[in-house]
Amino acid sequence: MEKYYIEDAIEVFGIQVKTFPEGVGEMFGKLMNKITDGRERDYYGISYMQEDGKIYYFAGAAEKEKGEAEKYHCEKYTIEKGEYLISSITDWRQKLTCINDVFHEMMQEKNIDKTKPCIEWYKDDIEMWCMIKTINHHIYIK
């Protein structure tokens, strides 16, 4: 696992997958077909455990222009800037069943913020990053 710093918040828009884990691929396909330049964007899967124990999953695309969520009749989400623990998965399409295990392993780390969502960053057709925000400990010396 490595660390990665997101300099600026990432605005995404997309669709909640209400039948998670079924329907994730279908929702990403639907989103890609909806967007004019659908193949030329970064895509994100954002998930967290709700109070009732169900997983909330959001299939999203990076916003290139303000107002795209409204234009495409989608929900909006902001990925916070800051430091993330990452684990890269190569050939992710053949390893979809392993993603949950990777996040489970990452959740065992001491410096992650368990109040933040798990993020899948689909960098391209080969590489995907599993990401969890870290808890930043700042020491100020006077």
Describe the structure in your own words.
The chain has 142 residues and is an alpha+beta fold. It has a single domain (2-133), classed as Regulatory factor, effector binding domain (Multidrug-efflux Transporter 1 Regulator Bmrr, Chain A, Alpha-Beta Barrel), CATH 3.20.80.10. It is 16% helix and 37% strand. It contains three helices and eight strands; from the N terminus they run ββαββαββαββ. An eight-stranded antiparallel beta sheet has the order 1-6-8-7-3-4-2-5. The N and C termini lie far apart (33 Å). 25% of the residues are buried. The mean pLDDT is 88.
Describe the structure in brief.
The protein has 142 residues and is of the alpha+beta class.
**What's the order of the H and E elements?**
EEHEEHEEHEE
CATH class assignment = Alpha Beta
Going by helix content, strand content and strand pairing, the class is: alpha+beta
Based on DSSP secondary structure assignment, what is the total number of beta strands?
A: 8
Rg, rounded, reads: 15 Å
Helices, strands, pairings?
Blueprint: E1 2-6, E2 10-16, H1 24-34, E3 43-49, E4 55-62, H2 68-71, E5 75-79, E6 82-90, H3 99-106, E7 118-122, E8 127-133
Antiparallel strand pairs: 1-6, 2-4, 2-5, 3-4, 3-7, 6-8, 7-8
Please describe the structure with a list of short key phrases separated by commas or semicolons.
142 residues, Multidrug-efflux Transporter 1 Regulator Bmrr, Chain A, single chain, globular, alpha+beta, 3 helices
